[in-house]
Design a protein that fits this description.
Blueprint (H helix, E strand, L loop, with lengths): L1 E6 L8 E5 L6 H7 L17 E7 L11 H9 L5 H10 L5 E3 L9 E5 L1
Parallel strand pairs: 1-5
Antiparallel strand pairs: 1-2, 3-4, 3-5
The structure holds FE2/S2 (inorganic) cluster (FES).
FE2/S2 (inorganic) cluster binds next to loops.
């Protein structure tokens, strides 16, 4: 089960912890369920409005993520990830520190999601 800690500098007193057990729900859906105000627009990995910073917590080995092409494209366009960082993540199966909340489905790990 994943423990997700949501945090925002605008809502410092409202750090929220949410557990995701289904492995099918996106971070955006979990945020909506828990009334966490992550900004979003398209909900489909196209606009980049929902970009969040993801930090692995705890001492489990970080899990790599398969990023869909449209998420890679948006993260590159936003300048959140460089081409060489992207190649390094793909070659070494590393997680991305930036994700689109509408595309990110957390797995069995604990993460901090900053929005
Ligand atoms: Fe548009 Fe996530 S809401 S990319």
């Amino acid at each position: 089960m994943a423990l997700i800690t949501f945090s925002s500098p605008e809502y410092k007193d409202k750090t929220v912890y949410a557990v995701a057990g289904s492995f099918t729900e996106t971070v955006l859906k979990i945020a909506k369920t828990n009334k966490i105000p992550i900004q979003f627009s398209c909900g489909d990995g196209e606009c980049g409005t929902c970009v969040v910073k993801v930090t692995q917590l705890g001492d489990k080995a970080p899990m790599g993520y398969h990023l869909e092409e449209k998420e890679k494209t948006v993260l590159l366009e936003l300048g959140k990830i460089t081409k060489s960082e992207m190649e390094d993540m793909i070659v070494n199966d590393l997680p991305s520190k930036w994700r689109l909340a509408c595309q990110f489905i957390p797995r069995d790990e604990d993460v901090l999601v900053e929005y």
